[in-house]
Amino acid sequence: METGYSVFSQSLQPTCCFLFFSFTLSFTIFSLLLFTLSLLKPHCDCEICRSYRSRSWSPEFDNLADWYTHLLRKSPTNTIHIHVLNNTITANPENVEHILKTQFENYPKGRPFSAILGDLLGKGIFNVDGDSWKFQRKMASLEMGSISIRSYAFDIVRSEIQSNLIPLFSSVSGEKDSVLDLQQVFQRFSFDTIFRFSFGLDPNTLQLSLPISDFVMAFDVASKLSAERAMSVSPLIWKVKKVLNIGSEKKLKKSIEVVKSLAQEVMENRRKIGVSTQNDLLSRFMSSINDDAYIIDIVISFLLAGRDTVASALTGFFWVLSQHPEVEKSIREESDRVMCPTKELASLEQMREMHYLQAAMYESMRLYPPVQFDSKFCQEDDILPDYTFVPKGTRITYHPYAMGRMERVWGPDCFDFKPERWLQGGVFCPVSPFKYPVFQAGPRVCLGKEIALLEMKSVALSLVGRFDIRVATPEKALRFMPSLTATVRGGLPVIIQERKR
């Protein structure tokens, strides 16, 4: 009996030691976290910092972006500083040009941003600076700028519209009490198109009757949890959770493993059939790069950038369009002039002739940009054109959402939706990208801009021509979730009626 007890006691000792060590380590890390946070506790007691900490701005403003807009409009320079965030925020076009072009090398994305998305995007183009960025930028510019890749993208968009989007809208059109979440539909549509464009496969997420694939679910979770890192009070919180592999960081790790494992599987299958005859991004990069992990990082970066931005832009467009039937009417009249009224899809050449549609799309993104703000980090002390001093290490943010609402930038009617402001003699006329940095500007200007616009205009034209789409609750203001892109809280429920011609 004693011998059995002795053996049991001896076998128990390593387990107890391990448990004690694990508890001690966890407690020590947790205590260190609390101590560090106490050191980082913001002591600034200015009005802006107090309001930010207490969220006392929320009863008056629907969104944090609206409060920032209010502060920036009040500022003589259209620039403010949030001390508790060590963040300088600007809506001044001269400052934006300084950050994105003139002093580009002094304002990289920086390590803090790279750390947030690093596990998901790795060394992909949207998460790196320096030589790695320059290499990917040059390679991607050659691919994205080619006529063949644009034609390939256009064919995918047309196919998805004809095969999935229009049939879905027709199936719910006219049904009593039938409400469709337009934001969710556009998220699924844009995911299907960018996935086909990136991997050459159709995930069919727009087929609402089909179950969502493991890749799509994992990608959604990974995107959401990566974005939530940026909203954390301190990066130490998610970093400690990552080390301990607990909570949201544990879910994020599992989701990323699924995404990258399935991407690797697609690559291996592609090698078997050959890449020379394929047009998707994965095949194109596989023909020139030998590092599989690097290729996956690049393609996933394009997947992330191309999905939510297009869906967000289309959601904002149809929300504002439902409030301006006169603009909807003008789009239809232009469409009928340029193409046959009974034709559902325009050609590339016809799309280029639709200046009013282009103006309406740009105007909606002026007020509801897909990416409401973007941040860089200052490498060395600097002074902005408005004489704002920016110390080394400061996060600096330019704010397209606020810029679209600056009277100094757009005039006294800056809050009004007016596509005509983009037209001269009926011809679309763009403005400086530093006044309208919706697609970024300078060396990092969006490579997929033309393809994204092509997709958005194709969708808008096909739906506006065939359906009357009305927001179910037009009296409610848009409230946005904390996210890398502008995502409407609760979606955008709409009622759809097929037009009688």
Automatic annotation (TrEMBL):
InterPro entries: Cyt_P450, Cyt_P450_E_grp-I, Cyt_P450_sf. Its cofactor is heme. Heme binds at C446. Belongs to the cytochrome P450 family. It comes from the Eukaryota. GO terms for molecular function: heme binding; iron ion binding; monooxygenase activity; oxidoreductase activity, acting on paired donors, with incorporation or reduction of molecular oxygen. Pfam families: p450. Keywords: Heme, Iron, Membrane, Metal-binding, Oxidoreductase, Transmembrane, Transmembrane helix. PANTHER family: CYTOCHROME P450. This is Cytochrome P450.
